[in-house]
Amino acid sequence: MDIGIIRGLITASVLILFIAIWAWSWSRKRHADFDAASQLPLGDDSMPPAREDMKEQQS
Fold first, then answer.
1. Under 8 Å CB-to-CB from 30, ≥6 apart: which residues?
2. CA angle 38-40-46, nearest 5°?
């Protein structure tokens, strides 16, 4: 095998990986997860979530 065949195989592998990731991200099963993640920046910031180390300091 010469370098041209190896480069072609690597290119084809990366293309297949790209298509697989694209299909996974646009699948109907992932739609609800991505919708929830897209709303995170718009959430209410008035009360930050309590962290465990902050609870220990307050008691």
1. 24
2. 155
The total of structural domains in the chain comes to: 1
Does any domain span residue 2? yes
pTM: 0.55
Residue 9 lies in a domain: yes
11-58: pLDDT as tens digits: 999 999 999 999 988 888 888 888 888 888 887 766 666 666 655 566
**CA nearest to 25, candidates 8, 37, 40, 13:** 37
Is the distance from CB of 24 to CB of 30 less than 8 angstroms? yes
